[in-house]
Amino acid sequence: MSLGEKLREAREAKGLSLEEVTKATKIRSKYLRALEEENFDLLPGRVYAKAFLRTYARFLGLDEIQLAQEFDSICPPPAESGHQPPARLLEEEEPVSLKGLRTILVVLLAIVLLFGINQAYQRLKGSAPERPPQVEEVQKPLAKTTETPPPTTESQPSATSKSITLKLSVTNDRCWMRVVTDGMVAFEGELQAGQEKSFRANHTIQLRLGNAGAVAVSLNGKDLGYLGKPGEVVTRQFSVQEGGSG
């Protein structure tokens, strides 16, 4: 029995329609039909096709690992082509693409580093007027020094007191994510179901989720729920203006 037949037979045995499965799994019915008919070209990429298959198999009570292995045998990665000439071409082209990616990453890291240095310089530059020689001179007449220091000490905390805290809780499936706080990469990797992480920033937090339907999000204690559907890639940015003070 083929992979698609196993899925269709298990669904029909439960008396479910594709629309009912879509409501339960949040996977579009056209993708479910493509899995049952093994029309993998209709799916949005091999990674998402495999993720949809595992979710569908788990919902039907089938062995998702075994079906994933069958999928790999039916639809192997492009690099494992059996034709020798294309394989050589791929071997020659891969280093070029990898070099291009590395160049882009180096440029992006350089931009982020320069941005961080500039931000640190601006903060130091903004805090420098706190210790001019004039402050010591003004402190000599006691009556005048008690009037001048309070405005300087009160104005500075207001600039740094605002911040945002983002909490990510992986609920029902694993998820790859990337978090950038104030222009710096704070985390990039995969979390399993049941894991959670919190991030804090003074200006902005940029979030990218590879499986938005598996991650519950809260901002400054406010529950935002799920930012997308299972298997959906979502990018969001949060700022102090929309998040409030932390």
Automatic annotation (TrEMBL):
Coiled coil: none annotated. Residues 172-235 form the Cytoskeleton protein RodZ-like C-terminal domain. Residues 126-163 are annotated as: Disordered. Transmembrane segments: none annotated. GO terms for molecular function: DNA binding. PANTHER family: CYTOSKELETON PROTEIN RODZ, PTHR34475. This is Transcriptional regulator, putative.
